[in-house]
Amino acid sequence: MAETKTPTFGEINTIRDILMGEQMSEYDARFNQINEALNALEQRLGQRIEDWIAKQESAQQALEDRISQRLNHLEAQLNTQGKELGRKIDTVSSADRARLGSMLSELGQQISQLSEEA
Prior knowledge:
The protein is an all-alpha fold. Helices cover 92% and strands 0% of the residues. The chain contains one helix and no strands.
């Protein structure tokens, strides 16, 4: 029985180069073109993502600033209205005390009149 020799890796490459040499060169060139195009696309996509992130951060900061201004404005309004309400309560309380004093004075006079008549 004849023994078959297994070709080595170098022999396989040599056979492949003989059979497909020109095509392999074309495949390698095409692969390099595709690889370069992919790298360029990856860089453009990366830049677009970075630009989008920067825009989003800027928009978020602007929104935070507007919210902060709005909250400060609302806080100032609340403080103003709280002070105004306090003044109104004081005014109403003073008026109520004056009316109550007047009513008590009238009641006292009526009681005195009733005491004198009895």
